[in-house]
């Protein structure tokens, strides 16, 4: 059954293949939604500071009765956090909001701030600073895996050229009217 299927990331961490996305679910409504999903067998929940529901996701995970080591929680560094300090503080804030002792996967939400999304500026050096904060959180054990979200080929290559730890995930926007085959192949 798909709810029990997992993949193994480059660092050996097991990630459930199917996860519950919580975009557009309020902090209040996310608690029963995540609770019910966990009751039904989901073991992966995806949130982000931009979704404004990390607190509710954490509350649901903590009160679910499912052991913490059986629930995989993904969150993100805010797209506007483009310095090492802002990324580090963002990870700490996500830990506080969720009330969890660790995060299973933290992604850089976007290579550019949302107000500049799709623009020409790529924030190359800034993303390398953000990535350094993720690598340090991984080394400290507060994060089990790190990756990217909404990154294009040039953005991924920029991280690969300057990283110590390669991204374990690139969360790609793909659907029937947007299937970026070149990015997925890369």
How do the helices and strands line up, and which of them pair or pack?
Elements (H helix, E strand, L loop, with lengths): L5 E3 L5 E3 L3 E2 L8 H11 L3 E3 L7 H10 L8 E6 L6 H15 L6 E4 L15 H17 L5 E4 L3 H10 L7 E2 L9 H5 L1
Helix pairs in contact: 1-2, 2-3, 3-4, 4-5
Notes on the protein architecture:
The chain has 186 residues and is α/β, with parallel strands linked by helices. The protein has one domain: TIM Barrel (Alpha-Beta Barrel). The protein has helices at residues 30-40, 54-63, 84-98, 124-140, 153-162, 181-185; strands at 6-8, 14-16, 20-21, 44-46, 72-77, 105-108, 146-149, 170-171. Strands 3-4-5-6-7-8 form a 6-stranded parallel beta sheet, covered by helices on one side. It has a two-stranded antiparallel sheet with strand order 1-2. Helix 2 crosses helix 3. It is globular and about 45 Å long. 39% of the residues are buried. The mean pLDDT is 96.
